[in-house]
Specification:
The protein is of the alpha+beta class and 81 residues long. Helix content is 41%, strand content 25%. The protein contains 4 helices and 3 strands, in the order H-E-E-H-H-E-H.
């Protein structure tokens, strides 16, 4: 069974503190905007690794594609959100 965007959102939220989290998708491909203080001082690859760690084995089994914007709270507010 393919996961819903709400399930993917919950998977991420369960493993990563998020100030804002939006997930859209069709069950196979997902787009996420993830705002977390855990991203402070981290490069893009390290931020993505934190998200992948939160998703665990689901990234290999349930989720086929995930496009993500990973922002710190400050970056998110400066972007006008």
């Amino acid at each position: 069974m393919l996961p819903t965007p709400e399930q993917v959102r919950q998977y991420i939220a369960d493993g990563l503190p998020c100030d804002h989290l939006d997930v859209q998708g069709d069950g196979s491909h997902f787009d996420a905007v993830i705002v977390s203080p855990a991203f402070e001082g981290k490069r893009l690859i390290a931020r993505h690794q934190l998200v992948y760690a939160a998703l665990g084995d689901r990234m290999k089994a349930e989720i086929h594609a995930l496009s993500m914007r990973t922002l710190t709270p400050d970056e998110y507010s400066k972007a006008g959100n």
